[in-house]
Amino acid sequence: MAHVASASGAGSASAAGEGAAASGASRPESSAPVVDRSSVEGIKARYRGNALIERLSYLGEVAPASRSSAMALAAAESKAVGSNTGLYASLCEAAGTDPDAEWVSATKARVHTRQEALERELNMKLAAQDRDAIFEAHTAVAKHFADIGSPKSSIASFMRAREYCTPSQLVSNTTDAAKVALGAQQVSSVEGIIRSTLSGATHATPQDHALLHAVMGAARLQRGNFAGAAQSFLAAGPALDSSVSDSIHRDDVAVAATLCSLAAMDRSRCIRMTQESIDFRRTVAAVPDAEALAADYARGQFGAVIRGLDAIEPSLTHDALIGPQWSALKHSIISRVVSDAVAPYARASIAAMSKRLSLPEAQLSDVVVSLIARGLLPARLDAAGGVIVARYSEQRPAVFAEATALAERMARETKQTLLRASMEQHHLAVKPPKNRRTGLPVGMAEGLEV
Amino acid sequence: MASDAGEIKLDPVNPRTENGRQFLDTVSRMAQADLRDLHRYAGMLAHKATLESISRVGSGAVVVLGEAISLPEHTASYACILYTAEPILHRQGHTALFVRFALSLFSEGDRRQLRAVPAFVASIARALGQHARSLGAASAAMRAITRAAEATAPNPHCLTACHAVAAMLGCDGKHYREVCAMADSDIFEVLPAASGCQVEDVLCFYYYAGVAYAALKKWSKATDSFSMVLVTPSAALSAVAMAAERWRILCSLMAAGKPPSMPVAASQGMARSLADDVRPFTRIAEAFVTLNPTALAEALKAEEEALAASSLTGLAAQLHRAQQARVILGLTSTFVTITTAEIAEKLGLGSAADAEALVFDLVRAGTLRASIDQERGVVSFLDDDATADPAMLVKRVESLVGAAAALADAIATRERDVVLSPDCVKHATMRARGRVSAEAGRSGAMAAAAGGADADVAEAMRRSTLDM
């Protein structure tokens, strides 16, 4: 009970401490009005081109309240920067506005003419076997496809162009393909070429490196590989666009890096990669919420971390990069936080931990049970008493059971082998039945091997 | 010869007839025969004329066994004659007489002499097994044949036909403990020449041993026994193997909570061959491992027909309970205490009382270490005390090490048998000879063979070369 009391006492003391910390150092105040990053204005302030269109479309789908304004802006951007008439028309429909029919028909004609010209150009260059020219022609075709909203064809053309590119052109080819993939949420299709470019690129600028790492991170995040995503996002560093980006904004990478690190890295590594990394601190400084999360985790203010997650949840569920994986990310972060919070205790009261971590008791119990079942928390739950009890590893029973099982398995397999060897030695075997007419085994009588 | 109220009236042998004299003469010579000559007399008995004379003078001729040939002095002769007379007795409707004589042979016969006539003993045992069942004498037959099995086995690890028949009769008469006691004696060798064992005996013995273990709820041993059926060398799939695999899957679920893997020593392609036949049982196993009671219930309902066809409905009905036990055992790694209401919710039971009853049964069976606070409705899981008693630990380790050492000896013996077998020696000799040039001659070949080989092998090669 003393331990339980101490856990409760520690909980309340640290909760009080966290309250002080929460009101003080971890969230620096700013006099500038804070723009909601997930709002239409917030997205417009950070993105342009296809990246803007993609993010506004996602916002429109998940936030009914912002749908018409997001889709209207996306439609306007689509008309301004591209030739994707299909996308323009669907965005207008979603926004409840009428598309500019004149622009649509003119654009369609222009697209058709341009496509024919590009294909002619490409065929001429292929016939001439001029590698540089072929590369340029394929790249032009790829950009055209991206322009008209055919990302798969665009990426395929970029891949074909790679066969004709010089080492100095390789990086630009990869970054162009990466931007198209990112804009179309098809990042997994370019993961391979990004990996090979990063491993051998000597002509890449810091911006190129940052972009490629960020796209790789996005691909891994899409697959649920939070550890890999954290590594890639952290490697992107501060070189990405911090103004208005046509691919991926530095602030979004900072948030993703923070969340993936919290979700996937063990505590010491997470602190090393976030708090002790100058690059990361520069990157995340522009996103106070993310910065606070990382700082709270490093200081062991676990309740503040969970409250912080709840606070940023509304904006992140509307984010095209993080939104699809938000619930898995949040679950992973909460699991890690609970595990770190409970691990030092011999006995910990569910009620006290629940208050400390700002989690409902039922949810905390579920998380604890899940952690125990996955072998991530060496404890057991006294459900009746509402206490988590540490399970100190007593190796002897497990070792003995394992040794016994191994010995029994050895004996069993040896006897099986001995029986079979004995039977084979004396030519005892189950033989197939014989055909009465031919006297041969049934299969052989029919011409089949038995 | 009329059969009157179960008593068989037989005509006595008439010594005044030529047939009768011939038969009596043969029998009395057999009585004095040396074991080495027995086969000659067996040949004589099997001669058509003698068989005809036996059938002509009637089954009364066989009554002579009780007078001219006595047990245990003339055990081998007794076995020889009974082996010959069995088809005649059966054909003439005197099966009960055969059973009586066979029981006497196995109960009173001399062990050494029985061991000398393994083929006769095996054949008589098989026939006795078959007839005893129909006459309701399975239990007596089982006891007699078990004695014969012990007597005729060349060594304690050797399987004989008598083992297989005894196992079958034991399961028939529900003498499961006796069958298990026989199977517990580590049998993994066959010596057909010395024991009269055939491949069917191997299949039947392990199959019925598995059934007996399963009847006594020794699921792990049952699974192992059925696995032995699968490791028999096979050029075709047998019905016994298919039945054994069905049993094996269900027993493995009861023992370990998961389906079994194919034995490493099984024939290649055995798993493939069995896959289609045991698909219903594989589906049941897949549902079991999900630990979802609903999924298991649905799978059992869907495969009702297959279970009934294999007569495994009773065993399958126990899977529910087994799955529930697995779920509760799984809880012990996560919880120190848990309410019976929560257990009932996890298992989909009707009430906390049902959960309490289930936990009670598991604790009483020794499967679960827990205590129940009935007032509060709380179950407390206790720590495993497998290592609490050091003396018990030491004893267990000693028995495991002893068993491993015995198996190592068996492997060494097997290795010697193989290496010194005529085929292997011949092959080695021819190989050695091929290495030496023709000019070196025979002695050179022998020397070369002896120089590079084990001493026993070299000696065997030298003898085989001289024989050539």
TrEMBL record, chain A:
GO terms for cellular component: COP9 signalosome; cytoplasm. The keyword Glycoprotein does not apply. Keywords: Cytoplasm, Nucleus, Signalosome. It is found in: Cytoplasm; Nucleus. Residues 1-38, 429-450 are annotated as: Disordered. InterPro entries: PCI_dom, Rpn7/CSN1, Rpn7_N, WH_DNA-bd_sf. Residues 1-33 have a biased composition (Low complexity). Residues 324-407 form the PCI domain. The keyword Nucleus applies. Coiled coil: none annotated. Belongs to the CSN1 family. This is PCI domain-containing protein.
UniProtKB/TrEMBL annotation, chain B:
Residues 215-386 form the PCI domain. GO terms for biological process: ubiquitin-dependent protein catabolic process. GO terms for cellular component: COP9 signalosome; cytoplasm. It comes from the Eukaryota. It holds the Pfam family PCI. InterPro entries: COP9_N, CSN3, PCI_dom, WH-like_DNA-bd_sf, WH_DNA-bd_sf. Keywords: Cytoplasm, Nucleus, Signalosome. SMART domains: PINT. Transmembrane segments: none annotated. It is found in: Cytoplasm; Nucleus. Belongs to the CSN3 family. This is COP9 signalosome complex subunit 3.
